[in-house]
Design a protein that fits this description.
Blueprint (H helix, E strand, L loop, with lengths): L2 H16 L12 H30 L6 H17 L2 H33 L2 H25 L1 H8 L9 H5 L14 H14 L3 H18 L5 H13 L10 H27 L4 H22 L5 H12 L4 H5 L2 H6 L3 H11 L3 H23 L7 H22 L4 H15 L2 E2 L2 E2 L1 H16 L5 H15 L5 H14 L2
Length: 486
Protein backbone atom coordinates (compact mmCIF):
# COMPACT_ATOMS: atom_id res chain seq x y z
CA UNK A 1 0.00 0.00 0.00
CA UNK A 2 1.43 3.46 -0.90
CA UNK A 3 2.80 5.50 1.96
CA UNK A 4 0.32 8.33 1.39
CA UNK A 5 -2.57 5.93 2.01
CA UNK A 6 -1.00 4.64 5.23
CA UNK A 7 -0.69 8.23 6.46
CA UNK A 8 -4.26 8.92 5.40
CA UNK A 9 -5.57 5.92 7.36
CA UNK A 10 -3.59 6.98 10.47
CA UNK A 11 -4.86 10.54 10.28
CA UNK A 12 -8.49 9.40 9.84
CA UNK A 13 -8.30 7.24 12.95
CA UNK A 14 -6.75 10.03 15.00
CA UNK A 15 -9.40 12.49 13.84
CA UNK A 16 -12.21 10.09 14.80
CA UNK A 17 -10.90 9.82 18.34
CA UNK A 18 -10.01 13.51 18.72
CA UNK A 19 -13.15 14.85 17.00
CA UNK A 20 -11.16 16.79 14.39
CA UNK A 21 -13.58 18.15 11.76
CA UNK A 22 -13.19 17.01 8.16
CA UNK A 23 -11.14 13.90 8.84
CA UNK A 24 -12.64 10.45 9.42
CA UNK A 25 -15.85 10.66 11.48
CA UNK A 26 -17.18 14.12 12.26
CA UNK A 27 -18.79 13.29 15.62
CA UNK A 28 -17.74 11.70 18.88
CA UNK A 29 -19.22 8.37 19.86
CA UNK A 30 -22.09 9.65 22.04
CA UNK A 31 -25.25 7.62 21.57
CA UNK A 32 -27.48 10.40 20.25
CA UNK A 33 -24.77 11.82 18.05
CA UNK A 34 -24.05 8.34 16.60
CA UNK A 35 -27.48 8.35 14.95
CA UNK A 36 -26.81 11.74 13.44
CA UNK A 37 -23.40 10.53 12.31
CA UNK A 38 -24.93 7.58 10.46
CA UNK A 39 -27.25 9.94 8.59
CA UNK A 40 -24.38 12.26 7.70
CA UNK A 41 -22.33 9.24 6.65
CA UNK A 42 -25.08 8.27 4.21
CA UNK A 43 -24.91 11.73 2.68
CA UNK A 44 -21.14 11.60 2.51
CA UNK A 45 -21.33 8.19 0.84
CA UNK A 46 -23.74 9.53 -1.81
CA UNK A 47 -21.43 12.45 -2.54
CA UNK A 48 -18.53 10.08 -3.11
CA UNK A 49 -20.62 7.62 -5.12
CA UNK A 50 -21.84 10.34 -7.48
CA UNK A 51 -18.24 11.22 -8.24
CA UNK A 52 -17.20 7.56 -8.62
CA UNK A 53 -20.19 6.87 -10.85
CA UNK A 54 -19.16 9.59 -13.29
CA UNK A 55 -15.65 8.21 -13.78
CA UNK A 56 -16.93 4.64 -14.14
CA UNK A 57 -19.32 5.71 -16.88
CA UNK A 58 -16.55 7.68 -18.60
CA UNK A 59 -14.25 4.66 -18.51
CA UNK A 60 -16.96 2.41 -19.95
CA UNK A 61 -17.54 5.02 -22.66
CA UNK A 62 -13.79 5.01 -23.39
CA UNK A 63 -13.41 8.70 -22.56
CA UNK A 64 -10.06 10.15 -21.63
CA UNK A 65 -9.51 10.35 -17.86
CA UNK A 66 -7.26 13.06 -16.41
CA UNK A 67 -4.71 11.78 -13.91
CA UNK A 68 -5.89 14.21 -11.22
CA UNK A 69 -9.48 12.95 -11.55
CA UNK A 70 -8.31 9.36 -11.45
CA UNK A 71 -6.35 9.96 -8.24
CA UNK A 72 -9.27 11.74 -6.59
CA UNK A 73 -11.72 8.97 -7.38
CA UNK A 74 -9.18 6.38 -6.25
CA UNK A 75 -9.08 8.25 -2.94
CA UNK A 76 -12.88 8.26 -2.74
CA UNK A 77 -12.98 4.48 -3.10
CA UNK A 78 -10.25 4.13 -0.51
CA UNK A 79 -12.07 6.42 1.91
CA UNK A 80 -15.26 4.38 1.70
CA UNK A 81 -13.50 1.06 2.20
CA UNK A 82 -11.48 2.31 5.21
CA UNK A 83 -13.61 4.90 7.01
CA UNK A 84 -17.15 3.67 6.37
CA UNK A 85 -18.96 0.69 7.90
CA UNK A 86 -18.98 -2.53 5.90
CA UNK A 87 -22.60 -1.93 4.90
CA UNK A 88 -21.49 1.07 2.86
CA UNK A 89 -18.64 -0.93 1.32
CA UNK A 90 -21.15 -3.55 0.21
CA UNK A 91 -23.40 -0.79 -1.04
CA UNK A 92 -20.61 0.56 -3.22
CA UNK A 93 -20.05 -2.93 -4.61
CA UNK A 94 -23.75 -3.38 -5.42
CA UNK A 95 -23.91 0.08 -7.02
CA UNK A 96 -21.07 -0.92 -9.34
CA UNK A 97 -22.89 -4.15 -10.16
CA UNK A 98 -26.03 -2.19 -11.05
CA UNK A 99 -24.02 0.26 -13.15
CA UNK A 100 -22.47 -2.61 -15.12
CA UNK A 101 -25.91 -4.14 -15.65
CA UNK A 102 -27.36 -0.89 -16.95
CA UNK A 103 -24.43 -0.32 -19.31
CA UNK A 104 -24.67 -3.84 -20.71
CA UNK A 105 -28.41 -3.60 -21.33
CA UNK A 106 -28.45 -0.09 -22.82
CA UNK A 107 -25.26 -0.09 -24.85
CA UNK A 108 -24.43 -3.72 -25.63
CA UNK A 109 -27.54 -5.87 -25.73
CA UNK A 110 -29.63 -3.35 -27.67
CA UNK A 111 -26.85 -2.87 -30.22
CA UNK A 112 -26.34 -6.60 -30.71
CA UNK A 113 -30.07 -7.17 -31.07
CA UNK A 114 -30.11 -4.69 -33.95
CA UNK A 115 -27.16 -6.46 -35.60
CA UNK A 116 -28.95 -9.76 -35.17
CA UNK A 117 -32.16 -8.42 -36.70
CA UNK A 118 -30.75 -6.55 -39.68
CA UNK A 119 -27.30 -7.98 -40.22
CA UNK A 120 -25.55 -11.14 -41.32
CA UNK A 121 -23.40 -13.47 -39.23
CA UNK A 122 -20.28 -11.48 -39.94
CA UNK A 123 -21.85 -8.21 -38.80
CA UNK A 124 -22.97 -9.75 -35.53
CA UNK A 125 -19.48 -11.17 -35.04
CA UNK A 126 -17.86 -7.77 -35.62
CA UNK A 127 -20.36 -5.98 -33.37
CA UNK A 128 -19.88 -8.49 -30.58
CA UNK A 129 -16.10 -8.16 -30.72
CA UNK A 130 -16.22 -4.38 -30.74
CA UNK A 131 -18.38 -4.30 -27.60
CA UNK A 132 -16.39 -7.04 -25.86
CA UNK A 133 -13.01 -5.45 -26.45
CA UNK A 134 -14.28 -2.10 -25.21
CA UNK A 135 -15.97 -3.57 -22.13
CA UNK A 136 -13.08 -5.85 -21.17
CA UNK A 137 -10.48 -3.08 -21.43
CA UNK A 138 -12.72 -0.83 -19.33
CA UNK A 139 -13.12 -3.58 -16.73
CA UNK A 140 -9.38 -3.88 -16.32
CA UNK A 141 -9.02 -0.12 -15.69
CA UNK A 142 -11.96 -0.11 -13.29
CA UNK A 143 -10.52 -3.07 -11.43
CA UNK A 144 -7.38 -1.02 -10.74
CA UNK A 145 -9.43 1.97 -9.66
CA UNK A 146 -11.35 -0.06 -7.07
CA UNK A 147 -8.49 -2.27 -5.93
CA UNK A 148 -9.18 -1.40 -2.26
CA UNK A 149 -12.83 -2.31 -2.69
CA UNK A 150 -11.77 -5.70 -4.03
CA UNK A 151 -9.61 -6.22 -0.95
CA UNK A 152 -12.47 -5.24 1.34
CA UNK A 153 -15.15 -7.49 -0.18
CA UNK A 154 -13.24 -10.51 -1.46
CA UNK A 155 -11.28 -11.34 1.68
CA UNK A 156 -13.21 -11.87 4.93
CA UNK A 157 -13.55 -8.42 6.47
CA UNK A 158 -12.93 -7.41 10.06
CA UNK A 159 -14.98 -4.96 12.12
CA UNK A 160 -13.38 -1.54 11.81
CA UNK A 161 -13.65 1.43 14.16
CA UNK A 162 -16.49 3.02 12.21
CA UNK A 163 -18.76 0.03 12.92
CA UNK A 164 -18.73 0.19 16.71
CA UNK A 165 -21.63 2.69 16.76
CA UNK A 166 -23.70 0.15 14.82
CA UNK A 167 -23.06 -2.42 17.55
CA UNK A 168 -24.14 0.04 20.27
CA UNK A 169 -27.33 0.85 18.36
CA UNK A 170 -28.22 -2.79 17.93
CA UNK A 171 -27.83 -2.62 14.15
CA UNK A 172 -26.88 -6.03 12.71
CA UNK A 173 -23.55 -6.16 10.96
CA UNK A 174 -23.12 -7.60 7.45
CA UNK A 175 -22.58 -11.31 7.05
CA UNK A 176 -18.87 -11.48 6.33
CA UNK A 177 -19.07 -15.14 5.43
CA UNK A 178 -20.72 -14.25 2.09
CA UNK A 179 -17.78 -14.13 -0.29
CA UNK A 180 -17.85 -11.77 -3.24
CA UNK A 181 -15.70 -11.71 -6.34
CA UNK A 182 -13.43 -8.98 -7.66
CA UNK A 183 -14.96 -6.32 -9.86
CA UNK A 184 -13.16 -7.60 -12.96
CA UNK A 185 -14.56 -11.08 -12.44
CA UNK A 186 -17.98 -9.62 -11.62
CA UNK A 187 -18.06 -7.78 -14.94
CA UNK A 188 -17.00 -10.89 -16.86
CA UNK A 189 -19.63 -12.95 -15.08
CA UNK A 190 -22.32 -10.41 -15.98
CA UNK A 191 -21.11 -10.36 -19.60
CA UNK A 192 -21.47 -14.14 -19.78
CA UNK A 193 -24.96 -14.17 -18.24
CA UNK A 194 -26.40 -10.99 -19.82
CA UNK A 195 -24.73 -10.95 -23.26
CA UNK A 196 -23.41 -14.38 -24.20
CA UNK A 197 -26.15 -16.64 -22.85
CA UNK A 198 -29.09 -14.79 -24.48
CA UNK A 199 -27.21 -14.93 -27.79
CA UNK A 200 -25.86 -18.47 -27.38
CA UNK A 201 -27.86 -20.10 -30.18
CA UNK A 202 -27.09 -17.38 -32.71
CA UNK A 203 -23.46 -17.14 -31.62
CA UNK A 204 -22.94 -20.90 -31.82
CA UNK A 205 -24.57 -21.09 -35.24
CA UNK A 206 -22.52 -18.13 -36.46
CA UNK A 207 -19.21 -19.68 -35.36
CA UNK A 208 -19.99 -23.14 -36.73
CA UNK A 209 -21.13 -21.73 -40.10
CA UNK A 210 -17.87 -19.84 -40.52
CA UNK A 211 -15.81 -22.87 -39.52
CA UNK A 212 -17.68 -25.03 -42.02
CA UNK A 213 -16.97 -22.44 -44.69
CA UNK A 214 -13.30 -22.76 -43.80
CA UNK A 215 -13.50 -26.57 -44.14
CA UNK A 216 -15.23 -26.52 -47.51
CA UNK A 217 -13.55 -23.56 -49.17
CA UNK A 218 -10.36 -23.05 -47.14
CA UNK A 219 -11.62 -19.57 -46.36
CA UNK A 220 -9.25 -18.12 -43.75
CA UNK A 221 -10.73 -14.61 -43.87
CA UNK A 222 -12.53 -14.98 -40.54
CA UNK A 223 -9.85 -16.85 -38.62
CA UNK A 224 -8.92 -13.86 -36.44
CA UNK A 225 -12.50 -12.85 -35.55
CA UNK A 226 -13.49 -16.44 -34.72
CA UNK A 227 -10.41 -16.83 -32.56
CA UNK A 228 -11.15 -13.53 -30.79
CA UNK A 229 -14.76 -14.52 -30.04
CA UNK A 230 -13.62 -17.90 -28.73
CA UNK A 231 -10.98 -16.17 -26.59
CA UNK A 232 -13.70 -13.98 -25.05
CA UNK A 233 -15.65 -17.11 -24.07
CA UNK A 234 -12.53 -18.39 -22.35
CA UNK A 235 -11.73 -15.07 -20.65
CA UNK A 236 -15.06 -14.76 -18.83
CA UNK A 237 -14.31 -17.91 -16.80
CA UNK A 238 -10.56 -17.62 -16.27
CA UNK A 239 -10.78 -16.91 -12.56
CA UNK A 240 -9.85 -18.98 -9.54
CA UNK A 241 -12.82 -20.81 -8.11
CA UNK A 242 -14.93 -20.60 -11.28
CA UNK A 243 -15.95 -23.66 -13.29
CA UNK A 244 -13.11 -23.83 -15.76
CA UNK A 245 -14.20 -22.83 -19.25
CA UNK A 246 -17.90 -23.41 -18.52
CA UNK A 247 -19.10 -20.72 -20.97
CA UNK A 248 -16.57 -21.74 -23.62
CA UNK A 249 -17.59 -25.39 -23.41
CA UNK A 250 -21.32 -24.70 -23.51
CA UNK A 251 -21.31 -22.10 -26.27
CA UNK A 252 -18.50 -23.37 -28.48
CA UNK A 253 -16.58 -26.53 -27.60
CA UNK A 254 -19.43 -29.04 -27.25
CA UNK A 255 -21.34 -27.91 -30.38
CA UNK A 256 -18.09 -27.65 -32.34
CA UNK A 257 -17.07 -31.23 -31.50
CA UNK A 258 -20.56 -32.52 -32.34
CA UNK A 259 -20.58 -30.68 -35.67
CA UNK A 260 -17.07 -31.94 -36.42
CA UNK A 261 -18.09 -35.53 -35.77
CA UNK A 262 -21.15 -35.25 -38.01
CA UNK A 263 -19.12 -33.64 -40.80
CA UNK A 264 -16.53 -36.41 -40.82
CA UNK A 265 -19.11 -39.16 -40.43
CA UNK A 266 -20.63 -38.02 -43.73
CA UNK A 267 -17.21 -37.75 -45.36
CA UNK A 268 -16.33 -41.28 -44.22
CA UNK A 269 -19.50 -42.65 -45.82
CA UNK A 270 -18.59 -40.91 -49.04
CA UNK A 271 -14.93 -41.97 -49.09
CA UNK A 272 -15.52 -45.72 -48.52
CA UNK A 273 -17.54 -45.82 -51.73
CA UNK A 274 -15.01 -43.86 -53.76
CA UNK A 275 -11.58 -45.21 -52.89
CA UNK A 276 -9.48 -48.19 -51.79
CA UNK A 277 -8.53 -48.98 -48.21
CA UNK A 278 -5.12 -47.36 -48.62
CA UNK A 279 -6.66 -44.35 -50.31
CA UNK A 280 -9.21 -44.05 -47.50
CA UNK A 281 -6.50 -44.19 -44.83
CA UNK A 282 -4.58 -41.44 -46.61
CA UNK A 283 -7.68 -39.23 -46.67
CA UNK A 284 -8.27 -39.84 -42.97
CA UNK A 285 -4.74 -38.69 -42.19
CA UNK A 286 -5.23 -35.57 -44.29
CA UNK A 287 -8.47 -34.73 -42.47
CA UNK A 288 -6.86 -35.31 -39.07
CA UNK A 289 -4.02 -32.95 -39.94
CA UNK A 290 -6.33 -30.31 -41.42
CA UNK A 291 -8.67 -30.27 -38.43
CA UNK A 292 -5.79 -30.27 -35.96
CA UNK A 293 -4.35 -27.20 -37.70
CA UNK A 294 -7.79 -25.56 -37.64
CA UNK A 295 -8.35 -26.37 -33.97
CA UNK A 296 -4.93 -25.00 -33.01
CA UNK A 297 -5.82 -21.72 -34.72
CA UNK A 298 -9.29 -21.36 -33.23
CA UNK A 299 -9.71 -23.37 -30.03
CA UNK A 300 -8.46 -23.51 -26.49
CA UNK A 301 -5.67 -26.07 -26.11
CA UNK A 302 -7.90 -28.30 -23.98
CA UNK A 303 -10.07 -28.96 -27.05
CA UNK A 304 -7.36 -30.34 -29.35
CA UNK A 305 -7.35 -33.95 -28.12
CA UNK A 306 -11.15 -34.02 -27.98
CA UNK A 307 -11.42 -32.98 -31.63
CA UNK A 308 -8.89 -35.58 -32.70
CA UNK A 309 -10.71 -38.27 -30.70
CA UNK A 310 -14.03 -37.37 -32.34
CA UNK A 311 -12.60 -37.63 -35.87
CA UNK A 312 -10.90 -40.88 -34.89
CA UNK A 313 -14.21 -42.28 -33.68
CA UNK A 314 -16.17 -41.32 -36.79
CA UNK A 315 -13.60 -42.08 -39.50
CA UNK A 316 -11.58 -44.93 -37.96
CA UNK A 317 -13.45 -46.74 -35.19
CA UNK A 318 -16.73 -46.70 -37.11
CA UNK A 319 -14.95 -47.96 -40.28
CA UNK A 320 -12.48 -50.38 -38.71
CA UNK A 321 -13.57 -53.44 -40.73
CA UNK A 322 -13.06 -51.57 -43.99
CA UNK A 323 -9.64 -50.22 -42.97
CA UNK A 324 -8.33 -53.62 -41.83
CA UNK A 325 -9.58 -55.76 -44.71
CA UNK A 326 -6.37 -55.26 -46.75
CA UNK A 327 -3.93 -54.91 -43.84
CA UNK A 328 -2.43 -58.41 -44.20
CA UNK A 329 -1.84 -57.83 -47.91
CA UNK A 330 -0.18 -54.48 -47.21
CA UNK A 331 2.20 -56.24 -44.79
CA UNK A 332 2.97 -59.10 -47.15
CA UNK A 333 3.64 -56.77 -50.08
CA UNK A 334 5.76 -54.57 -47.81
CA UNK A 335 4.09 -51.39 -49.00
CA UNK A 336 5.98 -49.32 -46.53
CA UNK A 337 4.21 -45.97 -46.96
CA UNK A 338 0.76 -47.57 -46.84
CA UNK A 339 1.80 -49.47 -43.72
CA UNK A 340 3.10 -46.27 -42.10
CA UNK A 341 -0.25 -44.60 -42.79
CA UNK A 342 -2.17 -47.60 -41.49
CA UNK A 343 -0.16 -47.62 -38.27
CA UNK A 344 -0.65 -43.87 -37.75
CA UNK A 345 -4.43 -44.17 -38.17
CA UNK A 346 -4.86 -47.31 -36.06
CA UNK A 347 -2.52 -46.43 -33.19
CA UNK A 348 -5.20 -44.63 -31.08
CA UNK A 349 -7.59 -47.58 -31.55
CA UNK A 350 -6.79 -50.49 -29.23
CA UNK A 351 -8.86 -52.90 -31.32
CA UNK A 352 -7.37 -51.71 -34.59
CA UNK A 353 -3.74 -51.68 -33.48
CA UNK A 354 -4.02 -55.12 -31.85
CA UNK A 355 -5.45 -56.58 -35.04
CA UNK A 356 -2.60 -55.05 -37.05
CA UNK A 357 -0.08 -56.43 -34.54
CA UNK A 358 -1.56 -59.94 -34.84
CA UNK A 359 -1.33 -59.80 -38.64
CA UNK A 360 2.27 -58.63 -38.38
CA UNK A 361 3.18 -61.35 -35.85
CA UNK A 362 1.65 -64.00 -38.10
CA UNK A 363 3.62 -62.75 -41.09
CA UNK A 364 6.94 -62.71 -39.18
CA UNK A 365 6.28 -66.24 -37.88
CA UNK A 366 5.54 -67.43 -41.39
CA UNK A 367 8.83 -66.03 -42.70
CA UNK A 368 10.74 -67.48 -39.76
CA UNK A 369 9.32 -70.95 -40.42
CA UNK A 370 10.39 -70.68 -44.05
CA UNK A 371 13.87 -69.79 -42.84
CA UNK A 372 14.31 -72.87 -40.61
CA UNK A 373 12.58 -75.37 -42.90
CA UNK A 374 10.21 -78.16 -41.95
CA UNK A 375 11.29 -80.27 -38.93
CA UNK A 376 14.59 -78.36 -38.83
CA UNK A 377 15.94 -80.15 -41.93
CA UNK A 378 18.61 -77.52 -42.17
CA UNK A 379 22.29 -77.03 -41.46
CA UNK A 380 23.24 -75.28 -38.18
CA UNK A 381 24.81 -72.36 -40.04
CA UNK A 382 21.72 -71.83 -42.20
CA UNK A 383 19.39 -71.98 -39.19
CA UNK A 384 21.23 -69.34 -37.17
CA UNK A 385 22.16 -67.01 -40.00
CA UNK A 386 18.69 -67.15 -41.56
CA UNK A 387 17.07 -66.27 -38.23
CA UNK A 388 19.57 -63.45 -37.72
CA UNK A 389 18.60 -62.04 -41.11
CA UNK A 390 14.90 -62.34 -40.24
CA UNK A 391 15.49 -60.50 -36.98
CA UNK A 392 17.48 -57.73 -38.66
CA UNK A 393 14.93 -57.27 -41.45
CA UNK A 394 11.91 -56.99 -39.17
CA UNK A 395 13.72 -54.93 -36.54
CA UNK A 396 14.46 -52.41 -39.26
CA UNK A 397 10.81 -52.57 -40.35
CA UNK A 398 9.65 -51.88 -36.78
CA UNK A 399 11.95 -48.88 -36.59
CA UNK A 400 11.00 -47.35 -39.93
CA UNK A 401 7.31 -48.22 -40.14
CA UNK A 402 6.13 -48.59 -36.56
CA UNK A 403 8.27 -45.86 -34.98
CA UNK A 404 10.11 -48.41 -32.80
CA UNK A 405 6.85 -49.27 -31.08
CA UNK A 406 7.65 -51.78 -28.28
CA UNK A 407 4.42 -53.63 -29.08
CA UNK A 408 5.62 -54.45 -32.61
CA UNK A 409 9.18 -55.15 -31.50
CA UNK A 410 7.75 -57.69 -29.08
CA UNK A 411 5.65 -59.11 -31.93
CA UNK A 412 8.87 -59.93 -33.82
CA UNK A 413 10.38 -61.54 -30.73
CA UNK A 414 7.23 -63.56 -30.04
CA UNK A 415 7.17 -64.87 -33.60
CA UNK A 416 10.83 -65.94 -33.48
CA UNK A 417 10.33 -67.52 -30.04
CA UNK A 418 7.36 -69.58 -31.30
CA UNK A 419 9.36 -70.91 -34.25
CA UNK A 420 12.62 -71.63 -32.45
CA UNK A 421 10.87 -73.49 -29.62
CA UNK A 422 8.48 -75.49 -31.77
CA UNK A 423 8.36 -79.23 -31.22
CA UNK A 424 9.94 -81.64 -33.69
CA UNK A 425 8.50 -85.13 -33.56
CA UNK A 426 8.54 -86.63 -30.07
CA UNK A 427 11.17 -84.24 -28.75
CA UNK A 428 10.62 -80.67 -27.75
CA UNK A 429 13.14 -77.85 -28.09
CA UNK A 430 16.05 -80.22 -28.65
CA UNK A 431 16.59 -79.69 -32.36
CA UNK A 432 17.04 -75.91 -32.35
CA UNK A 433 19.18 -76.02 -29.20
CA UNK A 434 21.46 -78.64 -30.75
CA UNK A 435 21.79 -76.78 -34.04
CA UNK A 436 22.69 -73.53 -32.29
CA UNK A 437 25.22 -75.34 -30.07
CA UNK A 438 26.88 -76.99 -33.08
CA UNK A 439 27.00 -73.66 -34.91
CA UNK A 440 28.79 -72.00 -31.99
CA UNK A 441 31.20 -74.92 -31.66
CA UNK A 442 32.08 -74.70 -35.35
CA UNK A 443 32.80 -70.98 -35.05
CA UNK A 444 35.01 -71.44 -32.00
CA UNK A 445 37.00 -74.27 -33.63
CA UNK A 446 37.80 -72.17 -36.71
CA UNK A 447 41.35 -70.81 -36.87
CA UNK A 448 40.28 -67.77 -38.84
CA UNK A 449 42.39 -64.72 -39.23
CA UNK A 450 39.25 -62.61 -39.48
CA UNK A 451 38.33 -62.51 -35.79
CA UNK A 452 35.89 -59.65 -36.42
CA UNK A 453 33.76 -61.84 -38.65
CA UNK A 454 33.75 -64.63 -36.05
CA UNK A 455 32.70 -62.22 -33.31
CA UNK A 456 29.88 -60.86 -35.46
CA UNK A 457 28.57 -64.36 -36.14
CA UNK A 458 28.78 -65.25 -32.45
CA UNK A 459 26.82 -62.11 -31.63
CA UNK A 460 24.17 -63.28 -34.07
CA UNK A 461 24.10 -66.71 -32.44
CA UNK A 462 23.66 -65.10 -29.03
CA UNK A 463 20.68 -63.10 -30.35
CA UNK A 464 19.04 -66.31 -31.51
CA UNK A 465 20.01 -68.11 -28.29
CA UNK A 466 18.03 -65.52 -26.27
CA UNK A 467 14.79 -66.95 -27.65
CA UNK A 468 15.41 -70.50 -26.43
CA UNK A 469 13.06 -71.39 -23.59
CA UNK A 470 15.09 -74.37 -22.40
CA UNK A 471 18.65 -73.15 -22.26
CA UNK A 472 19.69 -76.16 -20.18
CA UNK A 473 19.36 -78.33 -23.28
CA UNK A 474 21.78 -76.04 -25.11
CA UNK A 475 24.25 -76.40 -22.22
CA UNK A 476 24.02 -80.21 -22.14
CA UNK A 477 24.38 -80.50 -25.90
CA UNK A 478 27.36 -78.18 -25.83
CA UNK A 479 29.06 -80.24 -23.11
CA UNK A 480 28.48 -83.45 -25.07
CA UNK A 481 29.99 -81.91 -28.20
CA UNK A 482 33.10 -80.82 -26.29
CA UNK A 483 33.50 -84.23 -24.62
CA UNK A 484 33.00 -86.29 -27.77
CA UNK A 485 34.64 -83.86 -30.14
CA UNK A 486 31.78 -84.28 -32.62
Amino acid sequence: MPLCFDLWRSRSRISSSMNVPGMGMDKSLGMSEDKMDLYSMDERFEERWQRIQVILMDILAQKEIHRRVWNERFSDVYDITVNFPQAFVDRLYENIRALFGGHIQRHVVCSLQKSLTYGANVQLLDAYLQHWNSFYEALKFINKLVMHLNSAVVRPAKINDSEFPMIHLGISLPDYSNEKIEVLELGCQMWASDVVMPLREDMTRMLLDLIQRDREHHDLAYTDPIRAVVASLVAVDEFKGRSMLKTYKEIFETPYIQATGENYRLEASKFVNETTCSGYVEKVLNRLNEEDFRARRLCHTSTLDKVKAEIQARMVNDRLAFILQDSRMVIEERRQQDLCNLYAVLRPSSEGINTLRLHFTSFVEEKAREAVGSNYAIEPQDLVENLVKILARFDEMVTQVFSSDPMFRKAVEDAIRIVINQQSGATSFFVSAELIARYCDTLLRKSSKNLTEVEEKLDGAIKVFRFLDDKDVFQRVGQDIVMTGE
